[in-house]
Write a structure and sequence with these properties.
Length: 462
């Protein structure tokens, strides 16, 4: 009897310990780490400087005088420099009739440049990869692009493959969320996440102003990321993926229609950005940050916000400052989607960020343009190259995309970062003392209403 009681007592003590141990292992196995990433840097012959952009504009015979003026104005205001990259078929003047070969070769050049570097840098072999998640929104050939990578590197037969399309600039965080979720049921795994956009077959050649804007902003680029949930590799990781929040307003017609691939009245395919986009983006970000805020903000900031909000409700005065949530109390760095100058300004104002906070995003836009879903990683690599990221720092990613979606992600820096990356050859030039706008220097006069004759003269030369 005494022995039985002793056994029961021991079991009673061991059961909670066992449950705690099991819970600890479960939580540990759900960790998601970024081991390395490689941003794509196309070759020099693919650069789109002001002269090249001017030639592309001239080739569009569908533009009238006012369309031409409008397009030049957009280039001037876009916030991009002369070192962005475009597809080879656009530079060669074949934008009117892109081929499948053009589209596939653009992807191949990106895939194998970044993945080769990633495998070489980390020492990981393709056969060790058990999960592959790829997002390219506007190109879906058969076999899939993911299968093309698997075939090229002769990856294992039991690899888990996921192709994500149609989510535009927001797809990178969606892919990251997918990998993190997959890791919960696939322990001790290595995953590759590939994020890019297909530009070669998607250059708009018409005159619809809501569709031609994309030609001013979107550029070739992409990023390949190696992730793991192996506890043994934690010390080698760059970041730990802490929290992700995805928000999709697709149930609202206005949001669903504000960013959409479509055709103009002449059947020319393009991407339509309508006038409701700014308000929809603001609403999507608000809904997203409502969920993300409690995950990233310290308790004191949450209490402060709730108290001040309550007091404002009962005591309003004409000169009262409506101070919102201060995300800088819980976040050290902000990695924003480099969607365009207006997007950066708008998000910066909403979150009350300084020019120092916005510098990485502005520089990524200026140097590489809007590379769609991969733009976040160009921004992140700028922070790393500038040695801003220290162990324990928290980085918040925010992106927008078709759907309409706003997605956010919180990363924690695992170790001090100062690795060389895609910014290596040009980092010394950024940020410039004066951010020169080459398009303003060449086309700035287009904004002067008194210079209509100059516009007419150039237009006649087309």
């Amino acid at each position: 009897m005494e022995l039985s009681m002793t056994v029961l007592t021991v079991l009673a003590l061991l059961c909670p310990l066992f449950l705690l141990w099991k819970l600890f292992n479960q939580l540990r196995d759900q960790s998601c780490y970024v081991l390395a990433y490689e941003c794509h840097k196309p070759t020099e012959d693919r650069k789109l400087d002001t002269a090249q952009c001017g030639e592309i504009i001239k080739r569009n015979r569908n533009l009238n005088l006012e369309d031409y003026r409008f397009l030049l104005r957009m280039y001037v205001r876009a916030g991009i420099g002369e070192e962005t990259y475009g597809p080879r078929n656009i530079i060669a003047g074949r934008e009117e009739s892109p081929s499948l070969k053009d589209a596939i070769s653009e992807m191949d050049e990106f895939f194998f440049e970044t993945l080769d570097k990633l495998f070489t840098k980390t020492g990981v072999t393709p056969s060790e990869i058990s999960i592959l998640v790829l997002n390219v929104s506007m190109l879906a050939p058969e076999p899939s692009l993911a299968s093309r990578i698997i075939n090229h590197y002769k990856m294992r037969e039991d690899i888990k493959v996921f192709n994500i399309s149609g989510m535009g600039c927001s797809a990178s965080i969606v892919s990251l969320s997918a990998v993190k979720n997959i890791f919960t049921t696939h322990k001790n795994s290595l995953a590759i996440m590939v994020t890019a956009e297909s530009m070669a077959p998607n250059w708009y050649t018409g005159k619809d102003r809501s569709m031609i804007l994309t030609n001013c902003l979107f550029r070739s680029g992409g990023c390949s990321i190696l992730l793991t949930n192996k506890p043994s590799l934690r010390s080698k990781a760059l970041f730990k993926v802490k929290d992700l929040v995805t928000t999709n307003l697709g149930a609202i017609d206005e949001a669903y229609n504000c960013a959409m691939q479509t055709e103009d009245e002449h059947g020319r395919k393009g991407f339509n950005l309508n006038k409701s986009l700014p308000s929809v983006a603001a609403k999507a970000m608000l809904e997203n940050l409502k969920v993300m805020a409690p995950k990233v903000l310290p308790l004191r900031e949450q209490v402060r916000y709730m108290v001040t909000r309550y007091l404002r409700k009962w005591k309003r005065s004409a000169g009262e400052s409506k101070r919102g949530v201060n995300f800088k109390t819980g976040v050290d760095h902000f990695c924003l989607h480099a969607g365009g100058r207006a997007v950066i300004d708008g998000v910066g104002k909403s979150l009350r960020l300084s020019e120092f906070d916005l510098e990485p995003t502005r520089m990524a836009l200026y140097r590489f343009g809007n590379t769609s879903a991969s733009s976040l990683w160009y921004v992140l690599s700028y922070m790393e190259a500038k040695k801003r990221l220290k162990k324990g720092d928290r980085v918040m990613m925010i992106s927008f995309g078709a759907g309409f979606m706003c997605n956010s992600c919180l990363l924690e820096v695992v170790r001090d970062l100062e690795d060389e990356n895609v910014w290596k050859d040009c980092l010394a030039r950024y940020p410039p003392k004066t951010l020169v706008n080459p398009f303003m220097e060449k086309f700035g006069w287009i904004n002067d209403e008194n210079l209509d004759e100059n516009v007419v003269d150039i237009y006649k030369m087309l």
